[in-house]
Fold this sequence. Notes:
alpha/beta; 37% helix; globular
Amino acid sequence: PLKLYVLGNKKILNNKGIAIVGTRDCTKYGKNISFKFSKELTQKGFNIISGLALGIDTYAHLGNVQINMENSKSIGKTIAVLGCGIDELYPKQNKILAKQILKTGGCIISEYPNGTKPNKANFPQRNRIISGLSKAVLVIEARAKSGTLITVDFALEQGKDVFAVPGNINSANSVGTNELIKQGAIPVCNYKDILDNI
Length: 198
């Protein structure tokens, strides 16, 4: 992007980070895994980068925020990348979460100027920034035709590792992740599987 608009702690933008992404319509399993991996990777010093969307993104940010509220040590922060202006927080359900991200030393960023409303076309575009800020991308749950897979495509273009959490073969939310593994994404069952590969 030509410009990045930043709300919060811009010093963390160059720190090592891992993107955690997945479906908005996630299962309880997806929520728990996203939250757990986020907390563990945060404690290992990684920023958690996601899109502030409902579902997997929300729980990725929440895991980081919770650890940072409990622990004042120098640990990873969280970065939310928006598909609208930073003054147009979207979705509205995550306004409190956005405040917590800022309060715990994270930041909210966008390539779109203030006043830019959430636009469907902006969200796939912002995914290149999510992967661009990350050492690797972790996909937790994704349907067969998920917007999450756009982030994966950007990550591969950028030479980033892609990790995927295996899912229930009967769940529509796992079709995308299981397919990614068949195509060569690194399957992970715990955060150490990520640390061993980056």
